[in-house]
Amino acid sequence: MTRPKLLLDCDPGHDDAIAMLCAARYGDLVGITTVSGNAPLDRTTTNALLVSQIAEIDVEVHSGSERPLMADPVHAHHVHGPSGLDGPELPPLQRAVASRDAVEFLLDRAADDVWLVPTGPLTNIALALRRDPALLTRFAGITLMGGSVTGGNATPVAEFNIWADPEAAAEVFATGNPLTMIGLDLTHQVRMGHQEAVRLREADTATARMVADILDFYAASTPGARAAGAAAMHDPCAVLQVTHPELFESIRLPVAVETRGRYTRGMTVVDSRVPRSSSDRADGPFNDQVQVARHAEAARVIDLIIEAAVVPIP
Ligand code: RIB
Ligand code: CA
Questions:
Q1: Which ligand 1 atom lies nearest to the CA of residue 16?
Q2: Which of 74, 93, 116, 252 is geometrically suited to a Cys-Cys bond with 142, CB 3.0 to 4.6 A?
Q3: What pLDDT was estimated at residue 225?
Q4: Is the CB of 235 under 6 A from ligand 1?
């Protein structure tokens, strides 16, 4: 199996940290860019460096946007803690960023054999698009964790990554370029928690212990996770949809991002009407090249996540 080249744009974040391990284990991780989201930029960047240090992942980390395009910065401290990675005992940081210009790195590393995987707010991607409107077409493809078809987590209708920077998300979707959307309807099918943490602690490696601590904290940190007894593996699903597409099923649907609604700002408006006649076509900035993921082989995905935590990075 060839390991696809991946560029991960992320806001670690508990699930971003696990996504990093999956990207390094099953892909060829060409670089990591960080963005403000789950925590402020200095924390998401530090966390990306720490995870790469603990897991011994040889990858450059480039920090990016410390604030959204227009919105005030928002964070998910109630989910990830003030550090953005509460739970694991983290060592002193021994690594440094390769640059503070994630946008330049994105523009420089875009190539037809590199897959772009954003798992945080889309601010870096939108800023890079403003400098190169053809950016997304220069990557092999883009699979992003964000949005939802039915209901949100940041608000009743908006998912956090889109809601944190709706203007950026709107600009990315409005390109009309093909992209795959890994939304909450998909990620809520793949949940992990204490029982997987127990399996991981049997491996007794620094990486496995870190992921076990991540799962224990993350599965207890939100009402939804507590109720389900396990946390949704949002960001790892985005990476694994690229490395193991056979485990995911998607449907092509028009999608637009709401930026002005009093109650709906940050919502991905998915036109699921079928059959859709030409007169029914959703008008406005709908992107009708979006593959909306709707089913995952959850047990197999969870096994891959556990393997990424216990088997050393190649
Ligand atoms: O809504 C889930 C998304 O928001 C995930 O990417 C999580 O890390 C947070 O960024
Ligand atoms: Ca994230």
A1: 8
A2: 116
A3: 81
A4: yes
Q: How are beta strands 141-145 and 114-118 bridged, if at all?
A: parallel
pLDDT by residue (tens digit) across 26-42? 999 999 999 999 999 99
Return the ligand 1 atom nearest residue 159 CA. 1
Domain boundaries, the chain: 5-310
Place of tokens 């995870």: 51
Q: Is 185 in the pocket of ligand 1 (CB under 6 A)?
A: no
75 is catalytic: no
Check if CATH label 3.90.245.10 holds for domain 5-310: yes
Threshold 0.85, pTM exceeds: yes
pLDDT tens digits, one per residue of 292-302: 999 999 999 99
Q: How far is the CA of 83 from the centre of ligand 1 (A)?
A: 15
DSSP tag of 115: E
